Amino acid sequence: MTANGSVGSSPNRVGGRDRVTGAQQYVADIHLVDELQAKLVKIDEGRARIISIDTTKAEQVPGVQLILTPKDLPHPMPRFGPQYEDRPILADGEVKYHGEPIAAVAADTKEAAEEAVALVEVEYEVLPGVFSIDAALDPDADLVQHPSLRPNEPFAHSNIKTEFNFGWGDIGAIEGEADYVIERKYEFPMVTHFAIEPHAFMVAPEGDELKVWSTIQHPFQLQKTLAKLLDLPLSKLRIFAPDPGGGFGGKQHPKLEPLVAYMAMKTGRPVRLIMSLEETFQAVRRSSTRVRVRLGLTNDGDMVFNDTETDYLIGAYVDIADRVASKASYVAAGPYRVPVVKIAGRTILSNTTPTTAFRGFGVPQITWARECTLDEAALGLGIDRLEIRRRNLPEKGVEFIPGDTPADGDWRQTVDKAAELIGWDAPLSEGRGRGIALGLKSGPTTGLSYSTVRLLADGSALVFCGTSDMGQGARTVLSQIVAQEMGIPIERISVIMGDTAIVPYDQQTSASRSTVLMGTSVYRACKDIHGKVRAMASRIHGMDEADIDVDGGTVRFTGEELPIVEVVQEGLGSLGGEVIGNGEMRKDKEPDHPLAGSAAFFEFNCTAIEAEVDDETGEIQIIKHVTVGDVGTALNPQQVHGQDEGAAIMGLGHTLMEVMIHDEMGRIRNMGAIDYRIPTSKDLPAELVSDSIENSDGPGPYGAKGVSEGSLLCTAPAVGAAVREATGLTIRDLPLTPQRVWEAMREQT
Fold first, then answer.
1. Confidence tier at 2 by pLDDT (50, 70, 90)
2. DSSP character for 559?
3. Which of left, alpha, beta for 560 (phi over 0: left; psi -120 to 50: alpha)?
4. Which of 3-12, 15-24, 341-350, 474-483 has the lowest mean pLDDT?
């Protein structure tokens, strides 16, 4: 399965040259005739009541065409959101978080817009805000959202948004069977996505239609959101979503597109808003989380029960955070056989940047707590930390979450490979330690992807699909599937994405859907073509279709084999034309399931770390970082390794350095690349090893499963365990900065 750059090989990445040479056009590179530049009006406060907005001076700036304030919008204020329609177009009487837009300026030039923004006079009253879990849960705390925005919600008069409970069995009835019980609490910080390309939006009115350009991951969702807000038919909204420069979940859902749309409609001209990196810090982040884990085990290390509580601090508006918290909490017990599980979770509103999806979808927060607690339990019981994990893993095909997808891989293979690669039993140098941890994330629980493949008369092909290629290499993998099934070189295939007027509907690009869901859709479109080619061959050769086989780019019938392209060219004849195939992959909701759907697959990962800690400075050096994933089939091995390694380094970011810092007034103090640290080449492990277990047991084409999130899930607990072995320290709050480690070592002595 490797000819022509097809499945199982690693051809040059489709579109890769344009990305590295700068030829690729991002939203910020696209300009329209007569466009206006937009800038946002904000105040430097975490929470404040808006008394007045005076635009008199700003309106006098030459080139200013519009200053949009709340009074220019419909009343009541239009609101939107993927789960709850709670986010206003502009701050509605009150700034709920640092950086929430109060007004917006559109001018002929960026400089004029910036000058006008500085001249807008905002009178406001600073109000006390809630910026932490404890502050938000204080019975005397102000409410982040007014109860009128939360009709029929049981916690509307508190800052708790939602409370959810999962699990099975009765802990009270089984607790006595546990010889060893351990309970610990952990904290996971706020971090930001830090995509290389900041968010960017552009809207152009064209007759009775709107054209919208956005760095969105889900263009069809944006189309639906704007259609509802603006009372337009879907056919009058055309969304362009050029390949974004990274997303990591932060670009899944609409943010400021509705605001720009209102500005464009009021001016009758194209309006573009290109955010700075600093502004994106005020737009998206990962939820900070507090997790309490209580485990019961036998003296032999068998798990008896898992009792987990999670609190996710989700910000001023929900976005997709409720789904993040519930889906992550649902698998809080991890990839283990646990007879009794009790999971209680809450999402908590606060006067902070709204939380959205982030690579790992809430699972890294809980994995940090569970795996560290399990490590301590192993030490307390005198059991090897690797063996206690192997002991509790379910066999392949065994249902470990009642009523959900059974274990879909031989996960011990993954664990054993990681242990082998890290040299688990090898002697350690002084000041070094090793850690190992397991991560499990549910894949998509629902999905709908359509695609069209057009096999042209000259043997080239066009693929139309709504997936966004945001760095995961979807264009390449989808091209490989077509190359495999049509028997043509990958260089003769073009993949068209990012235009809702041209490509068929796709639900979303997230949860590692690209290969499994859209890949299956494209595979089925190719099979649709195979059926038509079979009919062609039957007509040409006067044979029964049942005697003709079409597979892997070849047409086979009695005594002869022909390339698909040759049969198609003969069948089309001198008139030319094409053969069109349509594909669909659908995973419907399951109404009785706690998440409305079982996992299409699981991303399972084992990460092992060897680290050295400097006892003078507290600095952690990663000597060796091993990540092994259960991938089903690696359709493009190089891309799988690249995705796993990238996610592993991202995991080191929130483990060792990343944290959004707020002052006592809720203002972010470390926005931008200088003050917010992410891993650079100087922070990479001395040795990074990624490997994959392939058993072709996934639901995707050729047995593939989703990848790219797994190696992020359990980086932190593996590092934490290595630090503990090296120093004897147990640190339960991230990130493990040199200062935090140094202070812990000083306290220890």
1. very low
2. T
3. beta
4. 3-12
> For tokens 């939820």, what's the residue?
287
Instruction: Check if the beta carbon of residue 412 is closer than 8 Å to that of residue 390.
Output: yes
In whole angstroms, give the CA distance from residue 63 to residue 314.
Answer: 39
Nearest alpha carbon to residue 313 among 193, 195, 129, 189: 189
First to last CA, the chain: 60
With 0-12 / 13-18 / 19 or more C-beta atoms within 10 angstroms meaning exposed / middle / buried, residue 669 is exposed
DSSP state of 22: T
Residue 464's identity, in one-letter code, is: F
Burial of residue 196 (number of CB atoms within 10 Å: 0-12, 13-18, 19+): exposed
Euclidean distance between CA atoms 103 and 262, whole angstroms: 12
Given strand 554-557, what is the order of strands in its sheet? 549-551, 554-557, 560-563
Q: 299: buried, middle or exposed (CB in 10 Å: 19+, 13-18, 0-12)? A: exposed
Q: What are phi and psi of 91, to 5 degrees?
A: -50, 125
- pLDDT of 748 reads 83
Per DSSP, 74 falls in state -
Does pLDDT of 3 surpass 60? no
What would the mean pLDDT of 607-621 be, rounded to a whole number?
97
The string of DSSP letters for 31-58 reads --TT-EEEEEE--S-SSEEEEEEE-HHH
Neighbouring residues of 176: CB distance < 8 A, sequence distance ≥ 6: none
Within 10 A of 109 (CB to CB), how many other CB atoms are there?
13
Task: Report pLDDT digits (tens) over 26-82.
Answer: 999 999 999 999 999 999 999 999 999 999 999 999 999 999 999 999 999 999 999
In the numeric block, the tokens 């990540």 are attached to: 627
Contact 190, 288 (CB under 8 A): yes
On whether the CB atoms of residues 38 and 105 are closer than 8 A, the answer is: yes
Nearest alpha-carbon partner for 284 in 340, 241, 244, 326: 244
At residue 208, the 3 state secondary structure works out as coil
Task: Report CA-CA distances (Å) from 622 to 277, 605, 607, 617, 720.
Answer: 29, 19, 13, 15, 11
Q: What is the DSSP string of 89-108?
A: SS--SEE-STT--SEEEEES
Domains delineated in the chain: 3-24+447-587 (3.30.365.10), 31-127+193-281 (3.30.365.10), 359-444+595-748 (3.30.365.10)
- From CA 305, how far away is CA 309, in angstroms rounded? 13
Give the pLDDT of residue 1: 42
- Other Cβ atoms less than 10 A from the Cβ of 397: the count is 11
Query: CA dihedral defined by 590, 592, 595, 599, rounded to 10 degrees?
Result: -50
Residue 510 · residue 249 · CB < 8 Å: yes
Instruction: Using alpha carbons, select from 718, 684, 677 the residue that is nearest to residue 189.
Output: 677
Q: Where are the alpha helices (DSSP H) in 423-512?
A: 474-486
For the ranges 4-8, 57-61, 643-647, 691-695, which has the lowest average pLDDT?
A: 4-8
Q: Which candidate, 352, 344, 369, places its Cα nearest to that of 290?
A: 369
- The backbone torsions φ and ψ at residue 493, rounded to the nearest 5 degrees and listed phi first, read -120, 135
